[in-house]
TrEMBL record:
This is Sulfite oxidase. Its cofactor is Mo-molybdopterin. Residues 321-428 form the Moybdenum cofactor oxidoreductase dimerisation domain. It comes from the Bacteria. SUPFAM superfamilies: E set domains (SSF81296), Oxidoreductase molybdopterin-binding domain (SSF56524). Keywords: Metal-binding, Molybdenum, Oxidoreductase. Residues 122-290 form the Oxidoreductase molybdopterin-binding domain. PROSITE patterns: TAT (PS51318). Pfam families: Mo-co_dimer, Oxidored_molyb. CDD domains: SO_family_Moco_dimer. The keyword Oxidoreductase applies. Gene3D superfamilies: 2.60.40.650, Oxidoreductase, molybdopterin-binding domain. PANTHER family: SULFITE OXIDASE, MITOCHONDRIAL, SULFITE REDUCTASE.
């Protein structure tokens, strides 16, 4: 069928889902007869499990964020970086396509980039980079990177680093910010010292309840000394053994855009707590109040609010441990496979903030039946988990691979992102990848 028809189905769903439903499905219910043929025409293939297609849901082929679609995504061109999806140039933001996250340990070149301001100059002597720890401590510390490495035990861990807005593009209505698909996630192997050890060396006062983080990146306004972002966390997270002051990634220097020469890695919590180009940790006697704190920033409603409504976030809470999510890295969304393909060997990763992943399931029949995948143990706490599994296909045609993970508390990714909030945090609905066979 023509491009025009594809566009009109897509547009109709976007503009008037009720009417689109009525057109595609007749009355609410399963796709049948002429309507099924029309939908098949729109996706360009027969739909073997079309009878299971849920009313009111745009086919995945049309519903992925524009940035993640095969059509014409802007691609990052940067030395040392792979073909990431460019989300914006000022500040620079780039997302990793799910298929580039097929590596068990994310390479530096495929690590997403999320900047709120500019990128600092390359330091002439990284070892001389200075970090200050002050505030509610007995002995404020000013220490160089070289001294940090000498003085404290050095550890290496695989750690998930996920933007608090990962999955934002799937919220409806649309929310403010980078329209990330599922690719604002990395699982690098970080080397550094534990923040805990350094805080203990400074000696926390009983009044120490939170941290505040500062980096050397210039604010886009050019105003000297104005932080582009300065977030902080409760002290218990700062004292966790996987919260690192990191100075190496995958055994090599950290790329400048990813925070060299020194950054926080606060795994499992919003990536904004992993301050790059780290210069100062201010230990606070109350929750930190820098840019990126309070209001609707990195905060989610306690009681659901009306999607699309405005809210000052006064009754919201900070998003802390990230919710369970999965990615499919073996097959690109929109992939076309050879006629006669009758099974798919699927592969991906899943993670769940401070928790672990208990199960991953995949469906190729619009959720009527689910196949349990094999989920590997994490390399260490706070590393993501790889999953693999096979699904069978009865014939050529249009399929959607739906994939969803369940965390160690038994919470499963919801059908659609829930708890809508104005800046689109914590959305972790089930993902759907369109696959065409033949
Ligand atoms: N100094 C500084 N640190 C920062 C940011 C920033 O803009 N400036 N962005 C944060 C956000 S929102 C995220 S998601 C992570 C992204 O880390 P990455 O760019 O290395 O992937 O860095 C965090 N640390
Ligand atoms: Mo982020």
């Amino acid at each position: 069928m023509s491009r025009k028809t594809e566009r009109s189905v897509q547009e109709l769903y976007r503009d008037d889902p009720e009417r689109a439903d009525a057109v595609a499905f007749g009355r609410r219910g399963a796709l049948k007869g002429a309507a099924l043929a029309a939908m098949g025409g729109a996706v360009g293939a027969a739909i073997p499990f079309g009878a299971n297609m849920p009313a009111g849901t745009l086919p995945a082929l049309f519903s992925r964020p524009a940035a993640a679609q095969g059509s014409a995504p802007a691609v990052l061109q940067m030395e040392g970086k792979g073909p990431l999806i460019l989300q914006g140039e000022r500040p620079l933001n780039a997302e990793t396509p799910e298929t580039l996250l097929d590596e068990p340990v994310t390479s530096a070149r495929n690590m997403f980039i999320r900047n709120n301001g500019g990128v600092p100059e390359v330091p002439a002597d990284p070892k001389a980079w200075k970090l200050t720890i002050d505030g509610e401590v007995n002995t404020p510390i000013e220490i160089t990177l070289g001294e940090l490495e000498q003085r404290f035990p050095v550890v290496t861990r695989q750690l998930q680093l996920e933007c608090g807005g990962n999955g934002r593009a799937f919220f409806s209505p649309q929310t403010r910010g980078n329209q990330w698909g599922n690719g604002a996630i990395s699982n690098g192997e970080w080397t550094g010292v534990r923040l805990r050890d350094v805080l203990q060396a400074a000696g926390l006062k009983p009044s120490a309840v939170a941290t505040g983080h500062y980096g050397a990146d210039p604010h886009l306004s050019g105003e000297p000394g104005r932080p582009s972002i300065a977030r902080g966390m409760r002290i218990s997270k700062a004292m966790e053994e996987d919260t690192l002051l990191a100075f190496r990634l995958n055994g090599a220097a950290i790329p400048l855009v990813n925070g060299a020469p020194l950054r926080l890695v606060t795994p499992g919590w919003p990536g904004s707590l992993s301050q790059k180009w780290l210069t100062r940790i201010w230990v606070r006697d109350k929750p930190h109040d820098g840019p990126g704190m309070g209001g609707t920033s990195y905060r989610v409603p306690v009681k659901p609010i009306v999607p699309g409504s405005s809210n000052n976030g006064a009754d919201f809470v900070d998003l802390e441990s990230m919710p369970v999510r999965s990615i499919l890295s073996s097959h690109a969304h929109g992939a076309r496979l050879a006629a006669g393909t009758r099974s798919l060997d699927l592969r991906g990763a899943a993670w769940a903030g401070d928790l672990t992943v208990r199960a991953v399931h995949a469906s190729v029949d619009f959720g009527a039946t689910w196949t349990e995948m094999q989920v590997a143990a994490p390399a260490n706490a706070h590393a993501w988990q790889r999953w693999t599994g096979r699904v069978e296909l009865p014939s050529d045609g249009y399929y959607e691979v739906w994939y969803r993970a369940t965390d160690s508390n038994g919470r499963m990714q919801p059908h659609l992102p829930a708890n809508w909030n104005p800046q689109g945090y914590g959305g972790n609905g089930i993902s759907r990848a369109a696959i065409l066979v033949g």
